[in-house]
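To assess whether ligand presence alters the predicted conformation, the chain was also submitted together with magnesium ion. Input:
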Amino acid sequence: MKWGLFGGTFDPIHLGHLRCAGEILEIFNLDKVIFIPAAQPPLKNDRDIISFYHREQMIKLAIEGNSLFSSSDIENQREGRSYSIDTIKHFLNHSPENLELYFILGQDAFHGIQAWKEWDKLLSLCNFIVITRPGYEIKGLQGIIPSDLSDKFKYDKSTDGFAGPTGNTIFFRKVIYLDISSTDIRDRVRKGKSIMYLTPDSVCEYIVSHSLYMEHPPIS
Ligand code: ATP
Ligand code: MG
């Protein structure tokens, strides 16, 4: 069994997330990808994030009909800030024994990995898949994490990944470049512009019907 865990704020989910998840599922032959919205993202406290409920509803709408995609509210079940290390530990402790976990994240997020709680331990807990994102080059591990740790991850040609001391691997994979971001979607909604084809129609409709991301939502 191979599961991909795709963490994020998903405020809102968009086609960049969905397409990447689909490609990674295909490349690694995963049994499923689980979207895991952060209840309280530790690194995004500089702006208001819409409620967990709305973000989760939009994920559910976006993945509807794809039996290989699911979502988890595990980070909303915990108090306080949502740390990936706690989520990974949860899945390691509550999943079938033969399970291989792959944590999926974009190159931009990986560049900031050292700000994540217990980041060095995190990298040894499961496999990581770093996906390309417009504006961020793949650099491997050098320059992203200190060399005393990066030296412990050895490139393995047979898997095209960097095998770490605990038997887990960090992979870098090219996926289609879709320069779509939640920030851009929120900006467009605020400015009254269309977000059609940036996120599934069902999510567009949800945003409109709940007046999400608008500067001055109508008083109902
Ligand atoms: P925001 O602009 O609010 O930061 P976002 O579009 O970056 O939103 P997140 O929820 O922050 O979306 O991203 C969750 C994960 O998905 C991160 O690891 C991020 O790097 C990755 N990701 C998001 N959009 C893309 C994309 N278009 N291509 C590749 N990876 C992406
Ligand atoms: Mg982001």
